[in-house]
Amino acid sequence: MKRNTKSWNIILFTYVLVAVAAILSIGIGSVYVPVPAILKTIFGSHPEAVNETIIMDIRLPRVLLALIIGANIAISGALLQAVMGNPLADPGLTGVTSGASAAVLVIMLILPQYTNLIPVAAFAGGIFAASIVYALAWKKSGISPITIILSGVAVNALCGGIVGFMSILYSDRLPSAIQWLNGSLAAKGSNALFMILPYALVGWILSIFAVRKANIIRLGDQVAANLGDNVHRTRIWLSLLAVFLAAISVAAVGMIGFVGLIVPHMARLIVGSDYKVLLPMSTALGALVLLVADTGGRTLFAPLDIPAGILMAVIGGPYFLYLMRKRAF
Amino acid sequence: MLTLDSISIRYERKEVVHNVSFSVKQGEVVSIIGPNGSGKSTILKAITGFISSHTGTITFEQKEIQQYTTKQIAQNICMLSQKNQAPNDMLVKDLVAYGRYPHKKWFERLNHEDQDIVHWSLEKTHLADYKDRMLASLSGGEAQRAWIAMALAQRPKLLLLDEPTTYLDIAHQHEVLELVRELNEDMGITVMMVLHDLNQASRYSNHLIVVQNGRKIMEGTPNQVMTSDMLRDVYNMEAEVVSMSKEEAPRIHLLNTIRQK
User: What is the mean pLDDT of residues A16-29?
Assistant: First the structure.
């Protein structure tokens, strides 16, 4: 009981931190808006016209988008790690993200009239990639980290090839797609926000129900089966949920790597590996990490707007190396 | 309680268990013995339905095992492997509480009765003082007791143990087997286990089943099974069997490996 209370206090604190960071992030940028003005614009009744455009149309949607996407990818990573019984499973490394983005690019470049199908296409692409990883990496005894990485390399190469091929065939339509591919939250506005929000809500509610299953499955296949769990079915539906969360994020903002790898790992260090606390902690941390990455991307090198995906790759790569060195898996 | 009727099991295209039949009575302790790779563990796994590709019938309490759902099996039969993995930071009491999982509906929480059962399982395995410890901080024997406590919380009628003593030193082996005996005698749990140590099998079982190359060679009480003939035929060992009295289990002294001609 004691340990749980402590974990919940930490989680609560992290959510407060997320809220504070969000408000500060809204204030930072080419035009600085002080905190009282932000609060007045969002919650007050007499907003100033200039502030209203900057905050309500540009910064608030972008901040919310960063929070939602960060949370999605972090949950997705945590669930994949439960399913594969391995802390290296991450939507980026396993190729789920690149499968989803190759599918999205097909719609964007070849079938632009079906833009509203982008989330569906992303989901299908993600499932395709995840199935390949399973087919390649799954052995009777479980999945080894090496085979996850290797099959991820294969899937990533395949999808990279598809993306490269399409960008040559349709070079005229490429510029808008490039910005998207890099995982940029710039100029997405409220459209992307309203596109992803309903899907994200569904994903989050489902992941609450996934907690117990994730906890059972990490006891190993045999024990889980012995406890009356249909291991195979659990694995499929947890994977589908993880792919769904990653895919809708890709559909909204493109490829953002490493959040799904780093965040659950940090969360595990802080609150432990029980999914009852790990999942809410990963959600908060994921939101926080991506918000910081995006805010850093648009302010550090202003007026340049560095996509959050690029910043995450620059931070995430070395962190991944650090994990390998520590043999954290 | 449990009857296996001409069971053959295929494992990755190879038949590893051939036409094995035996039955286990309520309240018995039955051990399967035999050389490495003879299919002992495979038989246990088939009983829980973890391996499904077999021919023949397995009947548990007058009903074929296939007619039970995974959950119903879990409410009646519990199997522990020789080595179990769990996250290092899991607390003993949390592990034991998972034993209640088969009895809970989707998203149902643990109630007072469940808490009592968890507590009782911890008491029974002498782990009450360890309940807030992390699994990683326990010794091998203590960890094995924690897994047995989980099995107890499951309240099975039949407990299947796959080499429960393999990774333990002799003191801990003894401790685990004494616990198994206690559970059998005090609570009437029927136990079926795979054991390597013949003297332990002899001492702690009412009934022995000898398996070699996937076939049942013989079965019977320890006195009937533990003979120098059996040891020569099955293990290729020259041995002396000492039987103090009718009540006491026979003991084996291994002397020599028999050279193949």
Answer: 91
